[in-house]
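Deliverable D2.4 — example input (structure tokens):
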């Protein structure tokens, strides 16, 4: 009976120590650093909630957006129409938009939003990201558009 307790105790210790010997997976630090460098908080779709000179409720209702998820294919929604453009991000928080083109659909409700979107987009020179929110600024530092990340719950 005494030997059964000793064997049970030894077996218990072996199982406990075997379970605690978890070896964390090896991580190639070069690969981990590469993944961190590829992630860029700017590369998201930004749903606009404010646009200089436009009613904020209409901006949200129009689903105006700036999609920067793929730098090779930047686009957005200008109110009524889809917009495509070239986005150039520089050092620090510099950004500019050029070569803006839209489809030509007419919808009376959101034409003012679209007019302001097309006027403001080429004026943007920088951005500021805080969490899931972005502010786009003109050359003087004035906030001309604000948005929230589309993937934010």
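Example output (designed residues):
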């Amino acid at each position: 009976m005494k030997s059964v307790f000793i064997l049970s105790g030894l077996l218990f210790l072996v199982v406990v120590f075997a379970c605690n010997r978890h070896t964390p997976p090896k991580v190639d630090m070069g690969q981990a650093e590469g993944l961190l460098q590829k992630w860029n908080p700017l590369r998201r779709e930004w749903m606009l909630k404010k646009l200089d000179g436009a009613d904020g409720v209409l901006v949200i209702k129009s689903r105006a957006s700036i999609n920067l998820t793929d730098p090779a294919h930047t686009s957005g929604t200008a109110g009524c129409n889809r917009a495509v453009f070239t986005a150039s991000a520089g050092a620090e928080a510099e950004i500019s938009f050029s070569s803006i083109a839209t489809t030509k659909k007419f919808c009376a409700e959101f034409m003012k939003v679209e007019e302001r979107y097309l006027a403001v987009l080429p004026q943007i020179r920088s951005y500021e990201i805080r969490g899931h929110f972005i502010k786009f600024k003109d050359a003087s530092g004035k906030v001309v558009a604000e948005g929230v990340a589309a993937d934010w719950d």
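The chain is about 30% helix and 30% strand.
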